[in-house]
Recover the amino acids of this structure.
């Protein structure tokens, strides 16, 4: 199975480049264990939603999983959809 679903910053950024920006978020998939992000291949994939305006990653029920200032557009991060419009 593809390791791009193991949550790391590099895999996050890789999926971000491949995902479509729609309705204010990017749809992503990562391995989870009991619904929580995993740093290993568990065989269990879950949907997540990244909101660049605010730098939050949310689970399939739209609960905030975490906030990352590094990936917050208000802190200077430029996501793919914003780069393409320049």
């Amino acid at each position: 199975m593809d390791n791009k679903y193991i949550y790391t910053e590099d895999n996050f950024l890789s999926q971000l480049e491949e995902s479509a920006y729609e309705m204010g978020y990017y749809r992503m998939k990562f391995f989870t264990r009991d619904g929580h992000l995993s740093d290993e291949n568990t065989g269990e994939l879950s949907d997540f939603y990244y909101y660049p305006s605010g730098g939050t990653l949310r689970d399939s029920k739209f609960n905030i999983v975490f906030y990352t200032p590094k990936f917050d557009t208000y802190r200077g991060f430029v996501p793919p959809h914003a780069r393409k419009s320049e």
